[in-house]
Amino acid sequence: MNGVHDMGGMHGFGKVEPEANEPPFHADWEGRVLAMQRAIRHTRAWNIDMSRDAQERLPAQVYLAASYYQRWALGMEKNALEKGLIDADEVAAGHALRPGKPVPRMSKDDLGGAFTRGSFSRPAATTPRFKPGDRVRARNVHPHGHTRLPRYARGHVGLVEAVRGCHVFPDSVAVSGDENPQWLYTVVFEGRELWGESADPTLKVSVEAFEPYLEPAS
Amino acid sequence: MSTHDDHDHHHGSELSETQLRVRALETILTEKGYVDPAVLDLIVEHYETKTGPHVGARVVAKAWVDPEFKAALLADATRAIARLGLISRVGDHLIAVENTNAVHNMVVCTLCSCYPWDVLGLPPVWYKSAPYRSRAVMDPRGVLSDFGVALPAESEIRVWDSTAETRFMVLPQRPAGTEGWSEEQLAALVTRDCMIGTGLPGRPAESGS
Fold first, then answer.
1. Which chain B residues have a beta carbon less than 8 Å from that of A27?
2. What's the Rg (C-alpha) of chain A?
């Protein structure tokens, strides 16, 4: 969706402000949110793209006003409600009103899984349509659902630099859990192709683009 | 716990509301049997004490002294780092990109905040912030100036937007004047920011080595 989460190239957010000696967390609740997010993954009630999608569907003003871990918490609550793990009256009450669903719970023995990213590559049913050096155009598409093609790249021509394998397709898996694997490419764009003649002439920007995002460019 | 509580109070009622909401969510998820608070404690402890850019720093230092490892790292970072035995397992799809005199690399995730946690630990707040996510792909030199970094005008700047499950870490250039240094000495020069591309490694005089 064309949401405020898709920030590349927007103006008006101000300077980047690095913080010296930043602590791991700025409040205890941030660590709890991160830990819950890691542990709830074990229930397999939703996947990482569903987490991203839930945050993207927050009202724009809520998304922009929330910190990173606040967005995680809001997205997690939304997914837990939508997937039927919890109910709205329980959120209002602040505690459980009925027993949970029979889903696996992460134990201490499963902790390795909390810290290791899964693999997203999948066996390919097709051969890649593009190869390094091919000129491709990022499609001018504006899907209402979750996608990982940023707006600033759409409609622009770049070069395929690398084929990264066949990966779980976020646009599908976020909706239905269907992994629908697709070839993934690194596509590099000239800064001036993306941002016009006034852009930094030394700039190149790449995105990781799934095959359905791309079409051949002559 | 106490050190962070003090910090919260400066933010007033808004954060208290967040605290209450997060506590309620944890209570509900716990009572319904979806999470175990003792396991959550261990996860928090892991992120507070075990992860961090020291892992990536050792990788970079190794690449600076060992050409064979450097070649393996640039070919397949996940596999090369796994062989070092620094961490039990690096997530798949990790890609190391090399800074040279001609090219400076910078990593961003404009759509959320994807970050190579396995080698750099928790992402800093600025990396997840709207200013960085919006500007890195359009005005990386402006972003670099926010960090006090100025690159030669002719350097190509390559920005990697982490829009899939591939993750990127920058292999910075080895600072001059470090000939004969041990991996441990070199690792002390490698900052988190230089592995994101918003900084450069420390120089020998600065580190006091």
1. 4-5, 7-8, 15, 19
2. 20
CA dist., res. A46 & res. A57, Å (int): 15
Whether the Cβ atoms of residue B133 and residue B113 lie closer than 8 Å to each other: yes
The CA dihedral of B63, B67, B72, B75, to the nearest 10 degrees, is 90
For residue A10, what are its two tokens? Answer: 């927007």
**pLDDT tens for each residue of A3-40:** 999 999 999 999 999 999 999 999 999 999 999 999 99
| Chain mean position to CA A188 | 20
Nearest to A32 among B34, B40, B134 (CB): B40
Which pLDDT does position B209 carry in this prediction?
44
Q: What are the b/e assignments for B154-188, b being 16+ CB within 10 Å?
A: eebbbbbbbbbbbbbbbbbebbeebeebebeebbb
Distance CA B55, CA A218 (A): 44
Residue that wins the pLDDT comparison between A111 and A9: A9
pTM of the model: 0.94
Q: Which residues of A19-33 are buried (b: 16+ CB within 10 A; e: fewer)?
A: eeeeebbbbbbbbbb
Alpha carbons A149 and A140: distance in angstroms, whole number: 10
Q: In this predicted complex, what is the ipTM?
A: 0.97
